[in-house]
Amino acid sequence: MSGKRHLIVFAREPVLGRVKSRLGRDIGVFAAARFYRQTVATVLNRLARNRRWRCWLALSPDSAINRHRFWPKSFQPTKQGTGDIGARMKRAMAQMPPGPVVIIGTDVPDITGGHIEAAFKALGDHDIVFGPAADGGYWLVGARRAPSTPDLFSGVRWSSRHTLEDSLSKLRKQGFKVALLETLNDVDDGPALAQWRKSKNKCA
Prior knowledge:
This protein is of the alpha/beta class. It has one domain: Spore Coat Polysaccharide Biosynthesis Protein SpsA, Chain A (Alpha-Beta Complex). Helix content is about 35%, strand content about 20%. It has six helices and seven strands; from the N terminus they run E-H-H-E-E-H-E-H-E-E-H-E-H. Strands 3-2-1-4-6-5-7 form a seven-stranded mixed sheet, sandwiched between helices. The model has no long low-confidence stretch (mean pLDDT about 90).
C-alpha cells in the first residue's frame, strides 16, 4: 500500500432526540442520547491513541463541524454532506488524500484499535475489507484505492439485511478481492443494548 492510512469515523452530533431513535423508543430519548454520547466518546478516545493512521471525523449535521466542545482535537473534522449513507461514504472516501481508507460508524461500542489495524493489514493484499454486522449490514468498510477505488456504494439496499450481501455480490462479480473481519453487533435498540450489557458483565 502506498500513502498514509486514513480512518474516517462517521458520527452524528449527540443532540437529544436526534440520535439513536430506535433505541430511544425502547429506553427513552434521554437514556439513548446518554448511551450514544458515551459510546462516541469511548470509541473516539480509544482510536485516537494510535498514531499508525490519520483520524478524520465525518459529522452530521454539517453545522456540527463548528461545535468543537465534544470532538477530540486529534480528529480532523469534515462534513458528511447530503444523500443516503452510501453517497456520504463515497464522498468522504473520495475527499481523502492518497492512501488506504477505512470507514466506521458509531453504532458498535466494541470497536478497538486492533480491529482497525486488522482492516488495514487486510488491505495489504485485498482491494476491499468489510466488518460484517450481525444484522446483515457492516460496521466497517475499507478500500486500498490503488490503482483505483471500486464502485462500493451504488446499487446497495442500505439499512437492511441485504446491505453486505449486495456489496459483496457486486464486488466479487467484478473480480475484486474482498476480506472479511469478525462479525460484531450494532446496538440500535433495547434488546441489542441488553445483550451487549450482558456480554460485558460476562467479561467483567
